Amino acid sequence: MADTIIRFGIIGAADIARKVSRAIALAPNATLSAIGSRSLEKASKFASDNGFSPHVKIYGSYEAVLDDPEIDAVYVPLPTSLHLRWAVLAAEKKKHLLLEKPVALNVAEFDKILEACEANGVQFMDGTMWMHNPRTAKMKEFLSDADKFGQLKAVNSVFSFAADSDFLANDIRVKPDLDGLGALGDAGWYCIRSILFAANYELPKRVIALPNPVLNELGVILSCGCSLLWEDGKVATFHCSFLSNLTMDVTAIGTNGTLHLNDFIIPYVEKEAYFSTCSKSGFNDLVTGWQPLPSKHIVPTDLPQEAHMVREFSHLVKEIKLNGSKPEKKWPTITRKTQLVLDAVKASLDRGEPVELGQ
Amino acid sequence: MADTIIRFGIIGAADIARKVSRAIALAPNATLSAIGSRSLEKASKFASDNGFSPHVKIYGSYEAVLDDPEIDAVYVPLPTSLHLRWAVLAAEKKKHLLLEKPVALNVAEFDKILEACEANGVQFMDGTMWMHNPRTAKMKEFLSDADKFGQLKAVNSVFSFAADSDFLANDIRVKPDLDGLGALGDAGWYCIRSILFAANYELPKRVIALPNPVLNELGVILSCGCSLLWEDGKVATFHCSFLSNLTMDVTAIGTNGTLHLNDFIIPYVEKEAYFSTCSKSGFNDLVTGWQPLPSKHIVPTDLPQEAHMVREFSHLVKEIKLNGSKPEKKWPTITRKTQLVLDAVKASLDRGEPVELGQ
């Protein structure tokens, strides 16, 4: 039996939707069926700018996409402040939901989105693409290896990029009423996710934000840092910023091994992705060199990571649609933990003190 | 005129002295003239174990080395708690001083050592070898480049190694009466130095230690972490530990560039050392890959970094001895700043609160 093709609608002609519409085209089990924007003109321009096939329907509103019975799933790249309204409505219209990060302004909002998804039996997944790169599974193998990596002790994660003056004046990520979580919601989301990934999704007990975030004149975070502490003594630190050169680091240090990569969110090249590991590293007799030397692992990427994401999501949707499966809880669970930590970091920044994590 | 050869004595048959005695042999302007230990037997064994030339004098006490008029300079690898006594005495005996790190238990002690050096006109240098690797000067060029690197925004440094059970039971670095600063004094010294190096030796305004150091049963630090904040918003974090796999990272992020290396203290191999840089990094049009890609720089190491250290130190000693130069203040100034920050981190750990840095 041929693989069922999941029909996607996109609501919002955001820049990121260019990349995801290509991913929908590349994924073997997905197809782009509709694009909706606030005006027909905007939607048409987006479709022609991105070379959409003529059979992609063009809608002048988000509602029209959600009302189209020939759409199985929607990709929602709208500003964060609009997620609650449109994600809930999408779920109510029985559309499976691929939602851009940060998924909500806080976990209370996200829980409403999740409730709507659960009540309507639709799959939820957030748009954190690197999770789906084949490299990520290989890294997980290493981090799970009790001999080669051992017990996790420390993680450091960085995501920064040097936003230009236009971004810093006009991007939705610097507007309190749009992506009000700023660099924390955008770049920090990835750092927090990578830390949770390394910690096998065990939540930290406490977060301690550095007391010197950089804010713009409207109070939106442009740069901040934080430490996370676990009950067992594990520690993590991250730094996220719109104000320094593009950097995407994850370092995870265990009792027996170390993992390094410097392009965790978007691999340097699309066709393959690398990571470096050391295990049981030591020195030569005079302590003038390492042995063993670190190993570099190259993982071929048959499809771009965002196409892997669409494929995985579409597979889950197909299982629900054809086989009556329940939505996979793994993805919303990881999303919720990310948002929980993000909320705690925001609270620690706002209050200027450590914040204990609840569930 | 042939280069004057500086005659070294070593006081203390420490393990690290094996590497430094080889460096003295390799440096073209230095020679090993004497080794002194607490007993003649220990000194003789160290000399024969390390294949010392028969003309290296063997002494059964530290004093005998300091009293030998044919010794210009001493290398002191004794436990930190003995530094004050022996470094001051060495200076008083007009011996130039190459002192292992951490140089003292606190900056007040170190100031007494410095006063003795200044009063007696002897050169001071600490034993932080990586500072002298030719790679370090190349990294400084990059970090000083206003176009390629820009203004420093964030630094992360890690030095950890997995100490074995013998180390954790018996090494001087886990004994409160010997190297009482534990992992902070040993591994943390390097992290702090690398952060100051990246910050062009500008002292941070405040240090905030993570509130969960791991201590042994005698209260010695086995693992800890800290954040450092500067007046201008720069931030740095470090993690130092005896309890996880060997890791030696420095990441420095500027407005325009990023520097990475993972073997900053002891290069992977002795003959060359690498670092990676990115400048003005961005993405391709669809944000599916980086451009430009990072560059890897390989710096050949004509002499091991510790021999570079001995050569630089011996050069300064020769200038004093032959040309009546004043001791070079650059090295003790950097040392003192490192100790100042280390003291502040220790105070922050002890008090469980942020500590403002004085001068």
UniProtKB/TrEMBL annotation, chains A, B:
Alphabetical list of Gene3D superfamilies matching this protein: Dihydrodipicolinate Reductase, domain 2, NAD(P)-binding Rossmann-like Domain
Domain Gfo/Idh/MocA-like oxidoreductase N-terminal: 6-125
Leader sequence residues: none
Domain of life per record: Eukaryota
Pfam families membership: GFO_IDH_MocA, GFO_IDH_MocA_C3
GO molecular function: nucleotide binding
Coiled coil spans: none
Family named by the database record: Belongs to the Gfo/Idh/MocA family.
Protein's name according to its UniProt entry: Uncharacterized protein
Membrane-spanning ranges: none
Domain named GFO/IDH/MocA-like oxidoreductase: residues: 145-259
Native organism taxonomy: Eukaryota, Viridiplantae, Streptophyta, Embryophyta, Tracheophyta
